[in-house]
Amino acid sequence: MNKLEDFLDNFWNTHKNNAGVAYVYTHKLSIAWILCVFFAVILGFVYQGKVAMFRGIAESSETIISLPSPTEIVKVYVVPGQEVKAGDTLVVINRPDLTLRIAELTRELDALEGRSNLSSAEIDQKVAEVKANLETRRLALNAEIRNLETEYESNKAISAKLKSLSNSKSKSEGTDAMAMRIKSLKNELNLATKSANEQIALLRGSGRLQKSSGKSEAANIRKELAEMRKQQQELTQIAKENWVVGDVNVRDGEKVSSFAPIVTLAHKSPTLIRGYINEQIYKNTKIGEAVKVTTLTGAGKGVVGEVVGLSSRIVPFPTRMWKMPELPVYGREVTIKIPEDNEFLLGEMVTITETSIRNLQKQNQQQKAKK
């Protein structure tokens, strides 16, 4: 410090006769303020419309295995931190209520189909009885009609031979009465046939109605039974893609309540960035906008992400992002989706920028234009 003061004093003593140097030395504080303001204005114009970089935390989307009904754990095949591939068995679960319900539905369906078959057989039997009664009635009436017709023809023949009695009143009335009886029996036969046909049609109609109703009820039972069997198949939980096991919250033989988390799965690499913009910084970020995500140090290969979510309110930053533990920081939360193929670690803090990606896009366009 003393050397610096000595240097300044020597410089002043040497150049104090220079009017320009004397003026600057005398008004050095004012000139420093003017220069600061000047550079601040220049920087404002240079970075006008630019987006300040901000920080975020690398996260991964999680999948929680749970069931909407109380369950019993049969066997757990994974441990925390284990990498599983698509098709690997994670856990086998048992639902006693599901097994009981499937048995009940199966019995109901069998009983319904049995009743439907029995109803059809009963209707066929009743139709056969109506036809048999009609046939018996028809034979009796036809026999009586034939007898009367034979007698009627015989009386007519006798009347033709006895011309002297052809005008007899009693004989004429007897013949007319016999003809009316034959006509009456024929009408009775027609009515019996019509009535039997109507009964048969009614029985057939009720049979079709019962059959249709039975089919509808059976279809509903089969639909529910298919859903129950599908849920039964899902009791063996299988990984549908590559995951890393996060938490295993159960043990073999343990009973679990409804919607309780059984196993938590996450991707091996981060797939989301949870960014935080300070509320004092103006930021014109939009959904669908491209950003570049890099490590805090800038080392390694950055990735291009896409803004997929913007919070509509101010939220507190995570504690680890506070500059001072006793001074919370608030801002807007931004969700960024990044490719799974990246070198970030889960929970790693990263830097997010937009200007870099714009320059990268320009470079890509220039390279394409040269080609």
Tags for this model:
Elongation Factor Tu (Ef-tu), domain 3, Helix Hairpins, 14 strands, single chain, four-stranded antiparallel sheet, OB fold (Dihydrolipoamide Acetyltransferase, E2P), six-stranded antiparallel beta barrel, alpha+beta, 371 residues
Q: Would you mind describing this structure in some detail?
A:
This protein folds into three domains: 48-61 and 269-371, Efflux pump adaptor protein, beta barrel domain (Elongation Factor Tu (Ef-tu), domain 3); 67-95 and 235-261, OB fold (Dihydrolipoamide Acetyltransferase, E2P); 97-233, Helix Hairpins. Strand 11 (290-295) and strand 12 (303-316) form a beta hairpin. It starts with a helix and ends with a helix. The longest helix is centred in the middle third of the chain and has 66 residues, at 96-161. The chain has 371 residues and is of the alpha+beta class. The protein contains six helices and 14 strands. Helix 4 runs antiparallel to helix 5. The chain has a six-stranded antiparallel barrel. Strands 2-9-7-4 form a four-stranded antiparallel β-sheet, with no helix packed on it. The model is unreliable at 45-50 (pLDDT under 50).
